[in-house]
Amino acid sequence: MDNYKVWIGVLLICFAAVAIMTVFPSKHKQCIDRNSVVIEKLKEKNAPRELIKNTGFEIGVKCNSDPSFNFTK
User: Fold this and answer.
1) DSSP 11-40
2) Nearest to 60 by CA among 26, 28, 21
3) Is the pLDDT of residue 12 over 90?
4) Which SS3 state, helix, strand or coil, does residue 57 take?
5) Chain center to CA of 29
6) Spatial distance between the Cα atoms of 29 and 70, rounded to a whole number of angstroms
7) Max Cα separation, the chain?
8) Of 73, 46, 47, nearest to 59 (Cα)?
9) Helix and strand element counts for the chain (H, E)
10) Is 57 in contact with 49 (CB distance < 8 Å)?
11) Domain locations in the chain as residue ranges
């Protein structure tokens, strides 16, 4: 009977962690989402795959160092 209580507690903690992360997304994720418009525009213009990859990498690195980063090019 005690094993069931432990597993229920573990599941509740996991559920709470996922709920908190969903309600309060990280600033890094918000920065990535905000700048993903640039990548979508490059895809619409049929830009080379290497350019899209490099732009995404640059956005990821800049957002990691500064969450308020806005990509301009």
Assistant:
1) HHHHHHHHHHHHHS--HHHHHHHHHHHHHH
2) 28
3) yes
4) helix
5) 3
6) 13
7) 61
8) 73
9) 3, 0
10) no
11) 2-65
Question: Does the pLDDT of residue 4 top 90, yes or no?
Answer: no
Among residues 66, 11, 2, the alpha carbon closest in space to that of 34 is found at 66
Q: Hey, what are 3's tokens? A: 């094993």
CA pseudo-torsion sign 46, 47, 50, 51? negative
**Residue 44 DSSP symbol:** H
pLDDT digits (tens, 9 = 90+) for 15-63: 999 998 888 878 888 899 899 999 999 899 999 999 999 999 999 999 9
**Residue 72 has what pLDDT?**
78
- Round to whole Å and give the CA distance between 16 and 38: 34
Q: Report the residue count for the chain.
A: 73
* Cα gap 73→69, rounded to integer Å: 13
